[in-house]
Amino acid sequence: MDASIDKLLPLSEATYYILLALNEPAHGYAIMQQVEAISEGAVKIGPGTLYGAFANLEKQGLIVMVREAERRKVYTMTDMGRHVLLAQLRRLRVMVRVGEASAPFLSKY
């Protein structure tokens, strides 16, 4: 794994869902709605959290603002953001596989 990517992992739950939501360019309110929908209501991000995350993600080079429309900034994920998201998905797959194999009693629940 690329050392620069490794430094950005693990992603927080909010960051993970924000990046997933930015598979297509979107503005803040749409992203908040998308995060809630794709997390099946488990994650709700408020404006303060979202715009703080945007600042960090831009600084890290994971997202970029592509345009401003009607006072709404539209963001998209960068190639680096995609690489980091894929690395996080690999980490999660390993965690699930090892967890299921190591704790078969969990299948009862």
From TrEMBL:
Q: Which Pfam families match?
A: PadR
Q: Which residues form the Transcription regulator PadR N-terminal domain?
A: 21-85
Which InterPro entries does the entry link to? Metal_resp_DNA-bind_regulator (IPR052509), Tscrpt_reg_PadR_N (IPR005149), WH-like_DNA-bd_sf (IPR036388), WH_DNA-bd_sf (IPR036390)
Q: SUPFAM superfamilies, from UniProt?
A: Winged helix' DNA-binding domain
Q: Which Gene3D superfamilies match?
A: Winged helix-like DNA-binding domain superfamily/Winged helix DNA-binding domain (1.10.10.10)
Entry protein name: PadR family transcriptional regulator
In its UniProt entry, the species of origin is given as Janthinobacterium svalbardensis
| Lineage summary | Bacteria, Pseudomonadati, Pseudomonadota, Betaproteobacteria, Burkholderiales
